[in-house]
Task: inverse folding
């Protein structure tokens, strides 16, 4: 490298960094796909709906990047076709009311707080609601069989 100029050496280093970044990005994508496959298999075997709480506490993905990985896994799952016999998940609010989950949290965020949210419908009135994911998963809603 003694015959190279500083500019040429910088270009070589930049090229190597770019190649490494591309390898890292490919590795990240493969990790997400594997995690999404494992999580989906777990959800189906357990008969569970997806939630951040289930992802961390029951599926046991408790690494420091759990929020990022959950969002990425949900993006992958959102692109998959739904099973023909899948039924919308129903929940009961602790103060009354039965609701049907229309949309699980994904990469969409509430404008006022920047948090992911659930979209759900009152089964009696048909009114549609949005609720922060943290509130939906704090115990005020319980599954209805």
Result:
């Amino acid at each position: 490298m003694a015959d190279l100029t500083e500019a040429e050496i910088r270009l070589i280093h930049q090229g190597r960094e770019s190649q490494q970044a591309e390898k890292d990005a490919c590795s990240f994508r493969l990790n997400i796909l594997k995690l999404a496959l494992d999580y989906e298999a777990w959800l189906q075997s357990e008969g569970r709906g997806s939630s951040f709480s289930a992802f961390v506490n029951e599926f046991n993905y408790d690494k420091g990047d759990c929020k990022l990985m959950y969002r990425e896994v949900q993006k992958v799952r959102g692109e998959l076709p739904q099973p023909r016999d899948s039924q919308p998940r129903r929940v009961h609010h602790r103060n009354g009311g039965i609701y049907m989950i229309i949309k699980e949290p994904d990469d969409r965020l509430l404008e006022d707080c920047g948090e992911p949210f659930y979209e759900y419908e009152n089964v009696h009135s048909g009114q549609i609601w949005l609720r922060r994911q943290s509130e939906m998963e704090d115990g005020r809603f319980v599954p209805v069989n």
